[in-house]
Specification:
- There is one protein chain.
- The protein is an alpha/beta fold.
- Strands 1, 2, 3, 4, 5, 6 and 7 form a seven-stranded mixed β-sheet that branches.
- The protein has one domain (about 10-195): Maf protein (Alpha-Beta Complex), CATH 3.90.950.10.
- The relative contact order is 0.18.
- Helices cover about 30% and strands about 25% of the residues.
- The chain contains six helices and seven strands; from the N terminus they run βαβαββαββαβαα.
Length: about 200
Amino acid sequence: MNSGLSLLQSPLVLASTSPYRRALLARLGLAFDATTPQVDETRHPDEPPQALVLRLAEAKARAVAPRFRHALIIGSDQVACLDGQILGKPHDRTTAIHQLQAASGRSVLFQTGLCLLNAATGQAQTLVEPFRVHFRTLTRQQIENYLDHEQPYDCAGSFKSEGLGIALFERLEGDDPNALIGLPLIRLVTMLEAAGVLPLGA
């Protein structure tokens, strides 16, 4: 999205081309640019999931800072964890079936790293927002029916909570349901306000 920012002294930039994050950020009614950060997302040896998403969220924001020297830059990264093991994006049906079978009747913890970087000063606000999903006990046929409907192969955990994926869950546990989709808006609003950006005005 490319447009002038009447509410901001500096441009707002989303360091992501994820359509899910773009749609979430658009809900705040603030004009912004979205760009691809060039970041090596390889996990460090023995790096805890929380440390991984925090590091990558800030790395993504800093990667695009040289191109937007007076911007407020948003970086975010997310992992899904089952029994302490990271579930990546499935990319194919077979992997998605395995992920959802493993999650059936159990809980998956999503850790979402968030960074708001002031490119002009180099100062960054960062945090990790947890959100836990408790899955229903699912049959193989229910899993396949879901995948036929939504094909969530680019989503960590193999579901889209904003769609039919909600039918997979028994309950949700967390402060910000937007974090589950990839961008914790409640926390982001607090960060923006601390940086002088008021989505609701004064």
